Amino acid sequence: MKAVETNLLKFMQGTKQFIIPIYQRKYSWTIKQCRQLWNDIVRVAEDEKIRGHFVGSIVYIEQGLYQVSSVPQLLVIDGQQRLTTLTLLLLALGKAIEESGQTLDITKKKIMNYYLVNSEEEGELYHKLILTESDKDTLINLVLGKELPEEYSPRIYENYHFFVESIKNSGIDLNKLYQGISKLIVVDISLDRDHDNPQLIFESLNSTGLDLSQADLIRNFVLMKLEPKEQAELYKEYWYPMEKSFGNLTNSSLFDRFMRDYLTVKTGRIPNIREVYSSFKSYVFEQSEQDVQQIVADIYRYSQYFVKLAFQKEKDKEINEVLTDINTLKVDVSYPFLLEVYDDYERQIISKSDFIEILRLVEAYVFRRAVCGIPTNSLNKTFATLSKEIDKANYLESLQAAFLLKDSYKRFPTDEEFKRELVIKDVYNFRNRNYLLRKLENFNRKEIIDIESYTIEHIMPQNPNLSYEWRRDLGPNWEEVHKTYLHTLGNLTLTRYNSELSDRPFKEKRDMEGGFADSPLRLNRGLARLETWNEEEICKRAQFLADLALKVWKYPQLSDDILAKYRKKSSKSESVTYTIADYPKLQGDMLVLFNELSKRICNLDSSVRMEFKKRYIAFKTSTNFVDIVPQESRLRLSLNMPFDEIQDLKGICRDVTNIGRLGNGDVEFHVSSVSEIEYAMFLIKQSYEKHREDE
């Protein structure tokens, strides 16, 4: 390696060509970085005391990569952002000089011949800077004064235009501006391919521009060590098409997500999103039997599945319809599992009908859990390891069994639980309410209704000041009915006449133009036949729609014999099952006390589950928040939270941090009678809320 400090303009002078290799990211400096460079140049231009301004390093391989030509070709490893930005500034300065008509120290022709072109050469060798595929033609056309290509690079053009306008609006003396540019200093670092490791040098450089994304680092790692011919083949066959499918990586976070999911599929471990590159390197080093081309081809194959999943690009309309539904639920955590299923489908391990059934099963699992309020923070691990539970000879059946055998916070809510929660849920403020109503409206319907053009209608109005007619129909307890059922499924429908329906009495809403009787929607059919709208009708409609929901989001159906077969196959032996009868101290008054307290705890939320352990009873969402140890004349409770965070107004809690006790947590207190339950719930709620926040 040779490194020397040098003047940037002198570095660019002479016959030479800077080539940005195909594995480098596209030009990515924004107006913000350009403005910073512009301000620095103006400052040093106007201050004669400043003799130089350092702008970073330019690292390149000097020889051995390309065939010998009349122009030395330098492969730029680091520094393309600075080189490209200065090229755009010099172009803008040349334009300003030409338009000014002034006689200056520098001319447009000299700027071109010294810094931008190799004036004695032709074709591509004429240009001093050759960018990557997506930026190349835009810069060449700007240098030649031609119109922009049809698919031009917005960043190249916008930054060039920024410099043109900055020169014009600042009114800066053009000689001074050129002097400012002449003060720019870089470290010129040339590498010897035979002795230096460009990849290690590239990783260790501290860029003064934009941080490299995980995608940039992975691309460089894959392609940098290859010979130019291999680079070009791999880039054009796999990497460039992949970048285009991700929108040319204008948002590299999506590619980072894909690589995390890809590595999860391949390794069974979920990498940290900020450490995808290091995880990828470890994975590659482990694949000693595969060469780079095989690995890149595999990444490309899975990227096609990811794009179909994320952007609904599947050509098969039936499959694409399910993918749209899954993405509406925003369950990206299922992608590692779905990528593997997609691969099995493409390799014809599963049929199209089974593939769709599997997708629908995932959709039902996620949606039922959302309705039942089950915490989502365990889903990433559930889906990351789900494929290990599948017998690929009995793909669909084994997946159904895997879901059915999950319990506690990983469970697939049963029809009973799903229906119970759906009819009482505040659907109006539910994130997936439009999805819910769309699916109910369009179930088994060939002429699909686009509900995005409809609005949510409360059949019983939201206005708390209900009219006489509404109060009469709802009955003497109308306020309680309004409070209880307003936002629930039974009281919600769809309309395009929301403002016209407003707070009108039910019969007017039913019979007016555009009213329920005049609606083409199935959701409104039952309303057309009703004479009144009250608590009874709301509950009937809720039950009807909930029964329909059971058909839309189906629960897996397997016989007990088949389920028992998969239970036996499970690698982990079933743990001992305990019941309330296994606690001899829970009898008489203590049993009454426990039953009352446990009921209050379970009523905190539908996600709360009670589990009987060997010597205590646990109450959990995704993990324990309170445990109860039955004793002779009282219940001992452990709250799973730091002692210094509990608000204990009565001072009954004890700090048991680092003391070996049954149960989980650092806070302990006792309950001896039903009269103490109210204050106990005040303490328990604090632990419950803390765990909900952590989720």
From TrEMBL:
Domain of life: Bacteria
Matching InterPro entries: DUF5655, GmrSD_C, GmrSD_N
Annotated ranges, domain DUF5655: 589-689
Residues annotated as transmembrane: none
GmrSD restriction endonucleases N-terminal domain boundaries: 10-222
Domain GmrSD restriction endonucleases C-terminal: from-to ranges: 413-547
Pfam families assigned to the protein according to its UniProt record, in alphabetical order: DUF5655 (PF18899), GmrSD_C (PF07510), GmrSD_N (PF03235)
Identification of the protein by name: DUF262 domain-containing protein
Organism for this UniProt entry: Geobacillus thermodenitrificans (strain NG80-2)
Lineage, top ranks: Bacteria, Bacillati, Bacillota, Bacilli, Bacillales
